[in-house]
Specification:
Layout (H helix, E strand, L loop, with lengths): L6 E4 L9 H10 L4 E7 L11 H10 L3 E7 L3 H11 L3 E5 L6 H10 L3 E6 L17 E5 L14 H15 L4 E5 L4 H10 L3 E4 L1 H4 L4 H10 L1
Parallel strand pairs: 1-8, 2-3, 3-4, 4-5, 5-6, 6-7, 7-8
Helix pairs in contact: 2-3, 3-4, 6-8
Length: 219
């Protein structure tokens, strides 16, 4: 993998769901590298979003890389449904109840990119046993569950620590950030070592999504 290329992943949770097909096309046509899909179950986080049926619909109408973030209890149980729905990458939380190593192994065995997510309060040390089993480490920069939250600067130290661990161990994974990402915070995260920027309000909320994506990519 190359970590010098910044990847922008518009987050579908901020889209207008009354015209979801048009919104997916706007993200893809506007230069989004990935489409980020937040799956929330009302248990692991205090919100409910969507499930594999919507992801399958998006897959059937777009070739963009589908970056599925499972904010759910027992991601191992539901994993086959999201694989079948057409995800390209699946990220699970270290805090969720499941055998983390086994779930990551199953994601990779399915031929998908395996990601591990850390909530803001979770130290990077919680990911240490799994760093050689992942393709992506997601450092949440807000408390997960709702879009539109303010970026938490304290997470920058965790991003720096993750980047140092990656370099020190000769490992090969993306560092992703999600929550309050705009051109200003994207620049701060990139300086700390992140290269995948998930942005919801800053992209889907913009009149000109292509311009918004360029600003985040070039910030």
């Amino acid at each position: 993998m190359k970590f010098d290329k910044r990847i922008v992943a518009p987050s579908l949770i901020a889209a207008d769901f009354s015209k979801i097909g048009d919104e997916v096309a706007r993200a893809s046509g506007g230069g989004g590298d990935w489409l980020h899909l937040d799956v929330m179950d009302g248990h692991f986080v205090d919100n409910i979003s969507f499930g594999p049926v919507l992801i399958q619909s998006v897959r059937g109408n777009s070739g963009i890389f589908l970056d599925v973030h499972l904010m759910i209890t027992r991601p191992d149980h539901y994993l086959p449904r999201f694989v079948a729905a057409g995800a390209d990458g699946i990220t699970v939380h270290v805090e969720a109840p499941h055998e983390v190593a086994q779930t990551l192994r199953r994601i990779r065995q399915a031929g998908l990119q395996a990601g591990l997510a850390l909530n803001p309060a979770t130290p990077v040390e919680a990911a240490l046993p799994y760093l050689d089993q992942i393709d992506l480490l997601l450092c949440m920069t807000v408390v997960p569950g709702f879009g539109g939250q303010a970026f938490m600067p304290a997470v920058l130290e965790k991003i720096q620590a993750a980047a140092a661990l990656r370099a020190g161990r000769g490992l090969d994974f993306h560092i992703q950030v999600d929550g309050g990402i705009d051109p200003v915070t994207a620049a701060r995260c990139a300086a700390a070592g992140a290269n995948v920027m998930v942005a919801g309000s800053a992209t889907f909320g913009a009149d000109d999504m292509a311009a918004a994506i360029r600003q985040i990519r070039n910030a």
